[in-house]
Amino acid sequence: MPPDDRWRTPLPARLPAALTPFVRTLQGYGATGMVPSVHRGLPGHTLTFVLALDDGLEVAPTTAAFAAGRLERHRAVLGGLHTEPAVIVQPGRWSGLQVDVSPLGARRLFGVPAAALPTDHYDAAAVLGVDLDRLHDQLGGAAGWPERYAVVTRWLSGRLAASEPGRAPRAVVQAWRLLERHGGAVEVGALAEQVGLDRRRLARVFVAELGVAPRTVGRLIRFQGARRDVGAAAAAPGPLDLSGVAARHGNYDHAHLVRDFRAFSGLSPTRWVAAERANVQAAPAGPAAGSAS
Which of 36, 52, 33, 101 is nearest to 288 (CA)? Predict the structure, then answer.
């Protein structure tokens, strides 16, 4: 589906240098006149913090929770690294801002390590308390995307300045950077050797800080990159080259890519593309609420 005037996707915010080690993107989004639908918020290797500007987000933490009717509505959502898709109900009109945060920045921006962020619900108020109320009040008085970006940037900068200067353990930081640099394609034994820990110790410090093991982080990094490639390839003419996507993102073969897609999205790549084309996410480029893009 080509972009149309029902969507409003402003350019991402330009972030101050102090935030860039922690915040990947700050992006507004908006849509009107859409057919109500549901969207799978897929796992990725960044934390997603979404601020709704309308009636809030209706979300279930997993597809099983959605099927059981376990939906929650929040003005802001935030959760830890997850390995199952969340489900977001998309009404005909919605708008907000999405902040993609490195898990290594969770302590500084959210006051807790990424491992302490919930994955069974996504209520940001449970983590941020009254500080989130102040942010919503300021956003309510902002006119236009530049002013909204300025409000959120000031809020994030204030949280950073007020935070303790502590950081994730050195081995976790080093291993995370190696995984990102190599697209997740680093064997855990080699990773442990490079940061000076044995495999079990590295797994323990990763889980304590991030909530998931190094192998899972590597899979999430590969999946996030492959998902972007699959989406881009599906929008282009010609057949979908899944073998080429698999090779670019460290999967052993086409079948390995399909297994990871099913594990993290519940769908094969071709079924995921068909589902995305059928809902609002297929329209413009840019992130959308609850996704890990």
Answer: 52
For residues 105 and 60, the answer to whether their CB atoms sit within 8 Å is: no
Computed from CA positions of residues 149, 124, 289, 93, in that sequence, does the dihedral angle turn out positive or negative?
A: negative
User: Quick one: what percent of the chain has pLDDT higher than 70?
Assistant: 89
Q: How far apart are CA 110 and CA 103, in angstroms?
A: 10
Task: Extract the tokens encoding 168.
Answer: 């994730």
pLDDT in tens, 92-127: 888 999 999 999 999 999 999 999 999 999 999 999
Residue 143, classified by CB atoms within 10 Å of its CB into exposed (0-12), middle (13-18) or buried (19+), is exposed
Region label for 291, one of left (φ > 0), alpha (ψ between -120 and 50) or beta (otherwise): beta
Element (DSSP H or E) covering residue 215: helix 214-235
Q: State residue 281's pLDDT score.
A: 41
**Pairing state of beta strands 94-101 and 47-52?**
antiparallel
Instruction: Note the pTM of the prediction, 2 decimals.
Output: 0.88
Determine the average pLDDT of the residues in 6-26: 90
Q: Do 7 and 65 contact (CB within 8 A), yes or no?
A: no
